[in-house]
Amino acid sequence: MSDFSSLIIGPGAIGSLVCAEIQPFSRVSVFAHRQNLTLATHLDLPGKTLALDWTVTPAPSVDVIWVCCKAMHAEQSTQQALARYSNATVVLLHNGMGPQQALSEAFGDQIIWGSTTCGALPISPQHYVQTSFGHTLMDQRAAHERPDYFNALIARSDQSNILKPAAIESIEAVLWQKILVNACINPLTAYHSVKNGQLSTNDHQREICAILNEITKLIQAKHLTLSEDPLTMVNQVITNSAENWSSMARDVQEGRKTEIDFINGFLIREGARLGIKTPVLERWYKRIAQRQVS
Question: Residues in domain Ketopantoate reductase N-terminal (predicted)?
Fold first, then answer.
C-alpha cells in the first residue's frame, strides 16, 4: 500500500483504534480541537501492546480525514479541517446521525459515511485497551471513484485485527440499526444510571419495545431493511455489553454534554419530516436534555 497522510478528528477511543490500524502505512496527525491536547501513547490489543505513532503537529497535506469525535463536534470540526485540506476524503465514524447528511450536502462525494462496532476504553489518559472486536463498515463506491489508498485499505481487511474495514452498499441501513440500538440503550441507562445489562428487566423491556415501535415506523417509511429483528438486535447488545456503562450514562454522570440531539433528536426530526408522531422518543429526549449540561 502506498504511503498517505491522515488526519484524525477525535483522538479518543475510536481515534486510537484508527491510528493503530493505519499507522503502518500512513502518516497520522491529529486535529487540535483544544489547546494543550495530549495523545494516548499505547493501545492494548489481544496479546500485545502497540505504541501509537501520531502527532498534533499540523501536516502540510492530508489525504484522508477520519472523524471519530462526538457527534456534536463532527460537522464544525470537519468544516474547519476541510478549509485547510480542501482535497481530502472524509470518513465519518462518529455516533448518531445528522452530520452525515449536512456534510454530504455541503461537500458531496468527498464525504464517506461509516460505522464501527469496534471499541476501546481508557486505562489512563495515555493508554487504551480494545474492548470490542467488530467491523468498520464504509459506504461502497465504484472502484474508479475511490482513491487508491482507500481501495488498498479495504483490500487488506482480512489482515486487520483492529477495525476490520469493509465497504458495503447499504451503509444508511447500518447507521439506522446503530441509532436504533443507541436510542434504546443510551437514554435508559443514562436516566436510571445503570449498566447496560440491567435493561433486561421486564420494566425496561417494555419501554424498549415502545421506543422500537416508533423507530421501526420511521425505518419502514424510509423503505430501509434491517438485518434482523429489532428487539433481538437490542437485547444482543445488552447481553454482550452487560457490564458496560453506555457513553451517554458516563456523560451524564461526569457532567458532560451528551449526544442526545444526534440520537433521539435526529429521530424526532425525521418523524416530523415524515409525518410520524414520536411521543416516546420525545419523552426520553426531554429527560436526558434536562439532566445534561448545556
Answer: 7-138
Contact 89, 153 (CB under 8 A): no
Is residue 160 located within the same domain as residue 192?
A: no
Interval 160-198: pLDDT, tens: 789 999 888 889 999 999 999 999 999 999 999 999 999
Q: What ranges make up the beta strands (E) of 117-190? A: 119-124, 127-132, 136-139, 165-168
Are 97 and 202 within one domain? no
86 and 123 belong to one structural domain: yes
Q: Which domain holds residue 202?
A: 172-291
- 98 touches 176 (CB < 8 A): no
First to last CA, the chain: 45
With H, G, I as helix, E, B as strand and everything else as coil, classify residue 198: helix
Give the integer Cα–Cα distance in Å for 79 and 92.
12
User: Model's pTM, two decimal places?
Assistant: 0.92
Weakest mean pLDDT among 34-48, 85-99, 247-261 = 34-48
Domain boundary among 145, 168, 191: 168
Place of cell 430501509: 224
What are the beta bridge partners of residue 27?
5
